[in-house]
Amino acid sequence: MDDPSIPAQPAAAGARIIAVANQKGGVGKTTTTVNLAAAAAELGQRVLIVDLDPQGNASTGLGINPRSLEASMYDVLLHDVPLDDAIEAAAVKGLFVAPANLDLAGAEIELVPAFSREMRLKNAINTVIDDYDLVLIDCPPSLGLLTVNALTAATEVLVPIQCEYYALEGLGQLLRNIDLVKRNLNESLEVGAIVLVMFDARTKLAGQVAAEVREHFGDTVCRTVIPRTVRLSEAPSFGQPITVFDPVSRGAIAYRELAREVVG
Q1: Which of 3, 25, 245, 249 sits at a 20 to 30 Å CA gap from 238?
Q2: What stretches of the chain adopt beta strand conformation (E)?
Q3: Helix (H, G, I), strand (E, B) or coil at 78
Q4: Which residues of 140-152 are buried (b: 16+ CB within 10 A; e: fewer)?
Q5: What is the pLDDT of residues 187-233, one digit of tens each?
């Protein structure tokens, strides 16, 4: 990672910018981003989701059609389109999305020669940060330049870990990358929270994994555990967060508890 030629402006005081990151796929990053954001909005926070995953699941999971976008995060990062021009309102009051589509898949390569490439997302977010209480960045399942942009922009990292075999596989590399970004690009970056997701109380393995993660990371691990439920899996296909799709379900209750724990 190169040192930027022009330093980014610091984020506004008190702004919460949380990167939801884990380079493993299928560990609940997008589910956690969308539902934590919706639950935080319920608490009266004004929340922005920045969708940095080319699959755009955080966008479609909130009912946004990626084919009808006038501007996306690709345009923001590569063509200097103002972030405010890309932001769409979600159906949940107080929740907004800066959406992604498949164009973003080429951004990893196109960013390589770009000027101040690691700082592009940080500089974009800083233009709108006063409008929001909380920004959640849904990272792609990789440790490439998109994730580096997210870690450079964030004040903290939230790491979802699935309660399954190999849960801790690759986590060491993620933590090393976070430390690398902290030393070179963003000295205020911290791992703010680790969230246990996809917890199946019927299996002994889930309990063992949860105990192992808590032993490794102590108080960084959230008290709230997100259960594995069918309703959580179904909600995105209806373009709704679980708090809207099934507000009294176990998943909705868990994400509300997580929002109170993480956001306050």
Answers
A1: 25
A2: 16-20, 47-51, 88-89, 95-98, 134-138, 156-162, 190-199, 221-227
A3: helix
A4: bbbbbbbbbbbbb
A5: 999 999 999 999 988 889 889 989 989 998 999 999 999 999 999 99
